[in-house]
Specification:
Layout lengths: L18 E5 L5 E5 L3 E5 L2 E6 L4 H8 L2 E7 L6 E12 L3 H16 L10 E13 L13 H13 L4 H16 L3 E8 L4 E8 L9 E3 L3 H9 L3 E3 L8 H12 L1 H4 L13 E9 L2 E10 L7 H25 L19 E6 L4 E4 L2 E4 L1 H17 L3 E3 H6 L12 H14 L4 E7 L2 E6 L3 E6 L2
Parallel strand pairs: 14-20
Antiparallel strand pairs: 1-2, 1-5, 3-4, 4-7, 5-6, 6-7, 8-9, 8-13, 9-10, 11-12, 12-13, 14-15, 15-16, 17-19, 18-19
Helix pairs in contact: 2-5, 3-4, 3-8, 9-11
Length: 445
């Protein structure tokens, strides 16, 4: 029976280094270790090109090679007959391999030595198993297809985005055993991602931001491709990304930076783009303190789950634009106590409550418009539709997820124990609850 490439993907995880055999034009053989073998599709693999060495010279002279790979679970030994096709020096595959290579280099103490020059694409001509004793495959911790089905069915019943994300994290934990996850939404106009929900971290980090290209999440978002690493990598660690981000913004920017959450001892990371109609909606990110926690199969199911998630987000977004009939207005709260200072900086729409930073950007503009209306007219009831049309907020366009901004704002208010709350009152409707008198200070540009 022919061995299919996708059935031996565990051999390509790099746990046991593979070897490649080539021959020179005069027939002299050469064998070398491989840093990385990447599964591309059922007929192709990519090998890391890091040095112009004997292997490289041989491949350019004769495009045929044999690669040996070993299954780390069973010890099964395979030989792959390959034909070199081309080298990619940019793009999603190159970036994916670059990030993974950084992880391998860090794990093996070779940081600064390994540098990816290209992703060599090979056609797999044949796969044969080398005769020998093997171990039985280990039992799987869960049936991934059954878990995917259960998780997607749960998502279908979500009434709104907040509920959708809660079901997502519950499903990841219950069906996949994933304890640490976060969801970031894409702000296309700003070219940044902002954290709207997290699970499993000491600090939620809701409201934190990351630019395209920063860290594993930023690179995966920029390239619109999932990126998975199985070892700690300093090059793409979040701490580095955050520090670099702060350095670019200058010291003054640190006061309005919310740290991106993340495990200090993260060993495995998987960032998956959430797409809808080929547009980036956001990023789903999971991580673990275990080495090699996520394999190719985990990546496949989370990509499928992210597809369902993206469609769900878009559908719920459209539903929120058609608000339910306004419910009877609740009696307004009677603010009491000392006034709450709400200071708004028009330069970046950052908002401070009693001198403490709360939020900035679109979410900050939303809050400022709400408190302005409250102070000027006593208004407490609002709808998403009218908010979207409000020129003071300057939403980028209809594709922007206003619901996500409101969730972000509501959670920041709760986290800061602010005497302001945003409460949902129906589909596409919400209420501003104020417990203390407001004292507004607008700082123009």
């Amino acid at each position: 029976m022919k061995i299919r490439l996708e059935s031996i993907r565990a051999c390509l995880e790099g746990v046991i280094p593979g070897t490649i055999a080539t021959r020179a034009a005069d027939g002299t053989p050469n064998i070398a270790y491989l840093s990385q073998i990447e599964y591309v599709d059922c007929e192709h693999v990519a090998l890391s090109y890091q040095f112009f060495n004997t292997t490289r010279r041989n491949i350019l002279a004769s495009p045929y090679a044999r690669v040996a790979a070993v299954d780390p679970h069973t010890g099964a030994h395979y030989r792959l007959s390959l034909q070199y096709l081309r080298t990619e020096e940019s793009g999603p595959l190159f970036e994916r391999m670059k990030v993974r290579l950084a992880g391998i280099a860090s794990h093996t103490g070779m940081s600064g030595v390994f540098r990816l020059l290209g992703a060599d694409i090979y056609r797999v001509l044949d796969i044969e198993q080398v005769p020998g004793d093997t171990l039985p495959p280990p039992p799987q911790p869960c049936n991934l297809l059954a878990s995917l089905r259960a998780c997607t069915e749960s998502l279908c019943g979500a009434p709104d985005l907040d509920g959708l994300l809660a079901r997502l994290f519950d499903g990841l934990q219950t069906h996949f055993g994933i304890e640490h996850a976060m969801m970031l939404m894409f702000d296309e106009a700003a070219g940044r991602l902002y954290t709207v929900a997290t699970r499993g971290y000491a600090d939620s980090g809701v409201g934190s931001e990351i630019a395209l290209g920063d860290g594993v999440i930023g690179v995966a978002a920029r390239e619109r491709t999932p990126i998975r690493i199985g070892h700690f990598t300093a090059e793409y660690s979040y701490g580095r990304a955050i520090r670099d981000n702060m350095a670019r913004n200058g010291v003054d920017g640190i006061d309005t930076e919310i740290p991106l959450p993340g495990l200090a001892d993260s060993r495995s990371q998987l960032a998956v783009p959430v797409m809808a109609c080929r547009q980036l909606v956001g990023m789903l990110y999971v991580e673990s303190t275990q080495d090699l926690r996520f394999g190719y199969d985990d990546e496949d199911v989370l990509v499928a789950l992210a597809g369902q998630l993206g469609a769900g987000i878009r559908l719920l977004q459209q539903m929120q634009e058609t608000p339910e009939e306004a419910p009877p207005a609740a009696p307004p709260m009677a603010p009491a106590g000392r006034p709450l200072s709400v200071r708004h900086y028009a330069e970046n729409d950052s908002v401070f409550l009693d001198g403490d930073y709360l939020i900035k950007g679109v979410a900050g503009a939303i809050l400022w418009a709400l408190v302005r209306d409250y102070v000027d007219s006593g208004r407490c009831e609002f709808s998403n539709r009218e908010l979207r049309l409000d020129r003071r907020i300057r939403l980028p366009d209809l594709s922007d997820n206003l619901e996500a901004r409101l969730i972000l704002l509501a959670r920041r208010l709760v986290e800061r124990d602010a005497p302001l709350r945003i409460e949902k009152t129906g589909r596409g409707r919400f209420r501003l609850c104020v417990r203390r008198p407001l004292e507004l200070v607008d700082v123009p540009v």
